Amino acid sequence: ECPKAQIAALPTRAIEVSPLERPETPRVLTTLGVKDQYVTLSYCWGSQQEYVLTSDNLQSCERGLEISKLSRTIADAIKVTKSLGFKYLWVDALCIIQDSETSKTRELAIMNRIYEDASFTIVAASAACANDGFLGARTGPQREIFRIPCRFSQDQFASVNIQEHEQYDDLREPVNKRAWTLQEQLLSPRLLIYASHTLQWQCRTLTCNIGDSYHSPNLSSI
Question: Which of 70, 72, 138, 221 has its CA 20 to 30 A from that of 25?
Answer without folding.
Answer: 138
